[in-house]
Amino acid sequence: MSQLKGACIIGQSGGPTSVINASAYGVIRTALDSGCITKVYGAAHGIKGVLDDVLYDMGQEDAKELEYLLYTPSSALGSCRYKLKDSAEDDSDYKRILEIFKKYDVRYFFYNGGNDSMDTCNKISKYMQSVGYECRIMGVPKTIDNDLFGTDHCPGYASAAKYVATTCMEIYRDARVYDTGMVCVIEIMGRHAGWLTAASSLANISGEGPDLIYLPERDFDLNKFVEDVKAVYVRSGKCIVAVSEGIHDSTGKLIAEYGAENAPVDAFGHKQLGGLAAYLANYIKGTMGCKVRGIEFSLMQRCGAHLASLTDIQESFLSGKTAVLEAISGTTDKMVGFERKYDEKGNYVCGIKLMDLTDVANTEKKVPLEWINREGNNVNKEFIDYALPLIQGTPDRPLENGLPRFARLKKIQAK
Amino acid sequence: MSQLKGACIIGQSGGPTSVINASAYGVIRTALDSGCITKVYGAAHGIKGVLDDVLYDMGQEDAKELEYLLYTPSSALGSCRYKLKDSAEDDSDYKRILEIFKKYDVRYFFYNGGNDSMDTCNKISKYMQSVGYECRIMGVPKTIDNDLFGTDHCPGYASAAKYVATTCMEIYRDARVYDTGMVCVIEIMGRHAGWLTAASSLANISGEGPDLIYLPERDFDLNKFVEDVKAVYVRSGKCIVAVSEGIHDSTGKLIAEYGAENAPVDAFGHKQLGGLAAYLANYIKGTMGCKVRGIEFSLMQRCGAHLASLTDIQESFLSGKTAVLEAISGTTDKMVGFERKYDEKGNYVCGIKLMDLTDVANTEKKVPLEWINREGNNVNKEFIDYALPLIQGTPDRPLENGLPRFARLKKIQAK
Question: What is the pLDDT of residues B18-58, one digit of tens each?
């Protein structure tokens, strides 16, 4: 394959993770060190930065600050949730992107995101091919939801999983200090796939995790839920429940909406929402009369870089690096995926595979139903075996004043 | 002072912290290693364990498991919120305690807790003196609220402060990934004292903390709050707010109750509470129409041992150890407090002082008003100088399977 000389753009898109910048660093560092990539641009807020012509010249950043990206949560270049229209319908965005690509002689485009971002990648790539503009386009995955099709797992998932499992263990201890009854409902992210909620089960390896775990892969029944909680509570006086934000009943209606329906309207006519955890905790209090607490892991689960998995950081970096090396060697239209391998001692090893963007875009991977117990209120050993290797390793994260030292980029705009 | 031979009891009381067990370990280890303490008993659920005659024989625990207490959050012996009556009013509890003390030949009593626990200590001590039972009684402080009178700071505060500051920095990054507006309201523990909420300001050393910080030491005005948020939001498109759960208006009414008043009543007639953060976030959404998020640090801030301050762990251990050594050497009726010192290089050093239980019990220490800015929406450098040395140091916490390895006590009941 011929060597293609030109600049590259790296953009970040969708909800951030603790390690999304480790992937970006994998792209940036490798691109800066390559012979044929002439300039490395970071797009401000993903594809919006391309459309708005706001590109940062990454070559002007200090090498040390770039390295801090390994430990810095949340898209350092900025993110967006911009969805490109089909070019057949409206090609104005594509024309603009082509214009910018030409302006900066962009021959490599790396997009760091989830399903939607792979769709963006795919559409841009198809357009560039249709107009005969040579450009190599690679997807670099990220998502705490772990729902990307075709890859064993996604960068960002393991660190969020480690946050969830560790925090559940701590809450388990806290919820047990008094000799009085206590039901604790923990709400975890994941609208359509229960991967992250399932990670709470890792806390049960040492017996310090949730008693009940509900994923959106199975229908949720409020009465069955109360019966489940009661059974645990009668036995032990405590019950810790992990629920995915996306749990829904058999009609597909979100349980979170049950609470929203009865939510009070404030002076401005807006509904005051308390969240799923608060709703379920209140419901249990109403039926059982016991002490309850609803806890939402909220943004912390996706930005808790202080609990990042070293394995996840390394794999995230590797996915970015691989995207660049593959593109340089001629690959295009692919997302870098992971393949699970084991060495001769049976230890987990992360293999790399390349996947067609067309296959990845807009398809969701869910927790296999056979990994969920018959009752639909827990996961089994298959899940533990799957997730445990991913959360291993503690990075030597940089500190300043006893607090995290995140990357401070200069973000010098390219002319 | 004569050497007093006999057993000791250590009990834990009140809300737990990340390092309350480091204090307990200071007591247990020192007592086990002492010559004159014949037996070391852990009371199950604080003073309730004494009243119920449920004492664990700490001498039968593995030394290694006891050492893990340094890194194990939440009262390992169990806690309680039991308040002793005045003995003049009803002395049945005291008679029972005396009976148990005699049964086990208890001559040392160490109580690990906050204001109420110091009150318990004090009452028991006065009673034992009144009936002529020789027993040395020492208070070992703990509280994330940092509100104990007379001591520079309290074991448990710094670790919670480190959790708050670190997490605020991560949320700051997360809240900035999109180029759209965002107001984030973070609710932090502390009903009467704002120490822990003030700790969010440590995140501002690197400019990655809340824009606005509201403590219960100052009256809170909802209209002023909206004006404050608007001013920041107009300037930067983002606004992060930290509020103490105990903020109240000028009549003393809790802002959290504002939301409760309008809370919907569920099928069982119970009010569905969404929490202060949710209330304020919804209120901002109503007045400003922007994207909002309410976040509650909930139990995580007091059990987040994975972010414990090494300084806090060491000082907590020291307070427990000092209590035992002092009691052995004849001291009684004191709480171990901290005194701030500086070495010749100006570095913070923790000094020890002993305080009368009578003075400590039931008095609350608040954030000095002169450490709060004139607007009442932030704290100043005096607070930073005070809190920063306390959060320093990262412990080498034990892990198993990439997750915390907490102490697993056998809890063998004494006969």
Answer: 999 999 999 999 999 999 999 999 999 999 999 999 999 99
In this structure, what are the phi and psi dihedrals at residue B199, rounded to the nearest 5 degrees? Answer: -60, -20
- Tell me which H or E stretch contains B241: strand B238-244
Order of all β-strands in the sheet with A238-244: A212-214, A238-244, A182-188, A292-296
Report CB contact under 8 Å: A170, B78: no
* Residues in B touching A114 (Cβ below 8 Å): none
H-type alpha helices, A131-221: 157-174, 195-198
Nearest Cα neighbor of B251 from B295, B219, B223 is B219
Q: What per-residue confidence (pLDDT) applies to B414?
A: 96
Distance CA A25, CA A409 (A): 12
For chain A, the straight-line distance linking the first and the last C-alpha, in angstroms and rounded, comes to: 31
**Residue in the structure block whose two tokens are 């704290």:** B379
Regarding beta strands B106-113 and A399-400, do their DSSP bridges make them parallel or antiparallel, or are they unpaired? unpaired
**B401 neighbors A205 (Cβ within 8 angstroms):** yes
Q: Give the Cα separation of B65 and B69 in Å (integer).
A: 7
pLDDT over 70 (residue B335): yes
Q: How far apart are CA A355 and CA A326, in angstroms?
A: 12
Q: Are A142 and A129 in contact (CB under 8 A)?
A: no
The answer to whether A93 and A85 have CB atoms below 8 angstroms apart is yes
**Which residues in chain A have their CB less than 8 angstroms from residue B73's CB?**
170, 173-174
DSSP letter at A390 equals G
Closest chain B CA to residue A165:
B403
Kind plus residue range of the DSSP H or E element containing B323? helix B310-328
With beta carbons less than 8 A apart as the criterion, state whether A32 and A14 touch.
no
Rounded CA gap, A306 and B304, in Å? 12
Over residues B184-223, the pLDDT tens digits come to: 999 999 999 999 999 999 999 999 999 999 999 999 999 9
CB of B181 within 8 A of CB of B234? Answer: no
- Residue B247 to residue B254: CA distance in whole angstroms: 6
Amino acid identity of residue A293, one-letter, is R
Give ipTM to 2 decimals: 0.96
Q: Which two tokens stand for residue B370?
A: 């002169």
Q: Of A159, A213, A207, which is closest to residue A186 (Cα–Cα)?
A: A213
Which chain B residues contact residue A203 at CB under 8 A?
403
**Residue carrying structure tokens 């002023």:** B224
Q: Which residue has the tokens 């701590």?
A: A170
Q: Is beta strand B55-57 parallel, antiparallel or unpaired with respect to B106-113?
A: unpaired
For an interface test with A, which of B272, B287, B301 has the most A Cβ atoms less than 10 Å from its Cβ? B272
Q: Tell the burial category of A223 from Cβ atoms under 10 Å away from its Cβ (0-12, 13-18, 19+).
A: exposed
CA distance B170 to A300: 7
Using CB atoms, pick whichever of A175, A268, A405 lies closest to residue B287.
Answer: A268
